[in-house]
Amino acid sequence: MSDAIEDFDAVDxxxxxxxxxxxxxxxxxxxxxxxxxxxxxxxxxxxMAMAILLNGMxxxxxxxxxxxxxxxxxxxxxxxxxKPTVDKHSTGGVGDKITLPLMPLVACFGVAVPxxxxxxxxxxxxxxxxxxxxxxxxxxxxxEEMFEQMRAHGGVICAAGSGLAPxxxxxxxxxxxxxTVEAIPLIASSIMSKKIAEGTGALVLDVKxxxxxxxxxIDRSRELAQTxxxxxxxxxxxxxxxxxxxxxxxxHAIGNANEVRESVEVLAGGGPADVVxxxxxxxxxxxxxxxxxxxxxxxxxxxxxxMDSWRAVIRAQGGDPDAALLVARETHTVVAERDGVxxxxxxxxxxxxxxxxxAGRARKQDPVLHAAGxxxxxxxxxxxxxxxxxxxxxxxxxxxxxxxxxxxxxAYRIGDSGDPVLDGGPLLAGRIS
Length: 433
Ligand code: URA
Hints:
Blueprint lengths: L9 H9 L6 H13 L4 H14 L3 H13 L14 E5 L8 H9 L5 E5 L9 H5 L11 H11 L1 E5 L6 H11 L7 H15 L3 E8 L8 H17 L3 E8 L7 E3 L1 H11 L5 H17 L7 H6 L2 H12 L13 E6 L4 E6 L1 H13 L13 E4 L6 E2 L4 E7 L5 H7 L4 E4 L12 E5 L1
Parallel strand pairs: 1-4, 2-3, 4-5
Antiparallel strand pairs: 5-13, 6-9, 7-11, 8-10, 8-12, 9-11
Helix pairs in contact: 1-3, 2-4, 4-9, 4-10, 5-12, 5-14, 9-10, 15-16
The chain binds uracil.
């Protein structure tokens, strides 16, 4: 590739995709290489991204795009660890703290879990932001530290190094500002280039649909899931996906420190039913992918093994698992106006409200407020009485409450007993392999 930058012309390639043609393997390799070097400009890549969004790509083209993005940076390998590796990736949602109980749970079974994670942008939270509410915990590890921790404790959650698929980093930032994030070939190649470059042996994808998800529509989520499963399988990574419902926030906590607190409740054998259900389903799927389909994951949660594993990995990264988590300076509780049943609680507005309280960031460089967030006191289907608390908003700056409450206007509804509950159906809606 090093001498190939004269081989093609970006405008010709844009025209091919604009006119619904197929790009060849050498054309795609050249495009990504030339873009990474700055020979193809952002305006040309933006036009190409829009042409892909409008006209799509064949499976072979998506695979070539993924491989070209992997080739733009370093790849890692965990082969020397002497244990199988399995990772999980979620397309993101509101209250999605599943990585926190899941990683230590799966690590109990003699496998290694390399959870290379990110920080949140917009209304979906980031795993690293949540864990940084634990005093002393450190996200940035060297490759050697990561390897050593997986050898000693079976799991690590840390920041993905900037060396993995750098072409994706540039392309993702460009898509964010050109209305081209939602193209399935681009999302699938973006996510999978980083996961394949990371070197995991197996991967389970949690692909969400519904109001709080990246994709609202279950059929589009299914298509995204199948595209990613095919990419992983073609690259030799054992990949499966669960389609999961994100119409309603997951669990009772949305934020950072409060999501850590809820995750610890799950590790202690309690926690909300939906968080436990999804944690167990993903753990079973991950362990089946590495040859342990009968692993008793419930027992590992109930008998304290998963909690011991959590404490060990938090300590290994400088965190104090016994330290008190931050509590917000200001709270505001919203109560039910009448007796009835909570029939609707839409994930997206609650995600936006938590973000406006300071739990998330609008720009990459912004800090987050670790104690900001929302605690839900009732979930869809629960009976409520006039004056009973529905949810509590928390932040350090009371000036943020009004905008958060604006986001929640019409986001929940109390109906009568017997009214249909609008939660979009069961949590687990399908499996793709
Ligand atoms: N996450 C990614 O890493 N890439 C996308 O395109 C979308 C979500």
